[in-house]
Amino acid sequence: GAGVSQTPSNKVTEKGKYVELRCDPISGHTALYWYRQSLGQGPEFLIYFQGTGAADDSGLPNDRFFAVRPEGSVSTLKIQRTERGDSAVYLCASSSTGLGTQYFGPGTRLLVL
Amino acid sequence: KNEVEQSPQNLTAQEGEFITINCSYSVGISALHWLQQHPGGGIVSLFMLSSGKKKHGRLIATINIQEKHSSLHITASHPRDSAVYICAVDNTDKLIFGTGTRLQVFP
After folding, report:
1. Between 20 and 30 A from A91 (CA), which of A33, A44, B25, B38?
2. For the segment B13-63, what is each residue's pLDDT rounded down to a tens digit?
3. Is A106's Cβ below 8 Å from some Cβ in B?
4. C-beta atoms of B97 and A44 within 8 A
5. DSSP one-letter string for B23-78
């Protein structure tokens, strides 16, 4: 595909459930980022991958959040025991190296009831 | 105090007006980004700059590294420019975002 894609576009779940959010970066981009955007706020950094490894996971709010990128392309953000406060838009972005322009996906809107 | 501050938070303008959005930051950066976010969430990168000035069509971005300040200007504004404009700084390996400026341009 031409751009970054994210699935699902919307996810409604119940408090306590487990969710997985997927990001397909632009082909060949080695850097991949996850951000979270709450209503009326700017995005907040969660985690950055360079290749298969998490280069910086300092933005993950707690150990309920985990992300993987096993083959250096697609990434999955996993949230265990979801809480209502996890409701937000989860944005993924990729960059060809990690120092340049980031290209954003359309986001996954997560609602925890 | 947020590490990246934008002003104003909200801005309304008449079509054709010259618009300025400001961004100040308090951390060391390698680059500054201006992003545009339309309703529905899609974010588009407008500029990445580390010094001086860049121009693309009716958009101009400037940065003063010494003063830790950047401005985004829109000349001859149009209703299709209505969006949230977000300033973000490259701090080590991640972006730190401002809260955005919501711009509405009326015909």
Report:
1. B25
2. 999 999 999 999 999 898 999 999 988 768 999 999 999 999 999 999 999
3. yes
4. yes
5. EEE-S--SEEEEEEE-TTS-EEEEEEESSEEEEETTEEEEEETTTTEEEEEESS--
